[in-house]
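Researcher: Structure prediction, please.
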Amino acid sequence: MDRLIDVLIIEDDPAFAAIIGMTLQTNGKFSATVADSGSEGISQLKTKPYDIILLDYRLGDINGLQVLEWMNEQKMETPVIMMTSHSSEELAVEAMKLGAYDYVKKEQLELDHLHILIHGVHERYLFRKEKEVREREKQEQEKREAAIQMFQTTVRTIAHHINKSLAVFSLRSSSVERNMKKTLPAEEAEKVVTLLADLRRQANIIEAVVRSLVQISDVVYTKYAGDQDIIDIRSHLEQDLEMLKEQKIIA
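Model: Predicted structure follows.
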């Protein structure tokens, strides 16, 4: 069974409030609570949340617009239907500015259609809240995508500089190796060649680690790769890192 729509009726005319309450409860889809003044209505709103508020303009103490102002101060978004026998259009405009969802004159209120009016306002409220949730989710998604893109750009920039340095090292080490073979005794030259070969192996491991990081950043950015792709890349990265540890390049 669907939950009843909980309606707060803020109305200082007891007879009129009782008729509205009975009409709604007879419908079977609403529960109704009556507050006989603006202050009492505010007290009820402090006690529990409601789905809809039927708010009279002329109340015994404070008027309906003042109740709306209080709700705005409390950042309370409960949809309000303003009721009044006052014929001023300015009042309707003011109520809407303060957040009222709809406006009805008491003398034009058809009790048989009251449930349609309330249902319509309630549906509009739910639609607006759903739209706000979707917009927040979209904004969060855009933030995540921007962060991921920044991560990818950062990784690629770092990888570019590392690879450039590794390429320079490879060229210079080859040049040094050739010169050492020409200028040093064979035994000394062999030591240098062995050292440079070891350094190149370590440089190759670093290059593999960087390549794995770039691949991971690409997978995260595109979000199209499957779980197995990430597992495989992570496995390669762990192997490369383990090799670096063995070489005592990292702790």
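Model: The longest helix spans residues 114-183.
Researcher: Thanks, that helps.
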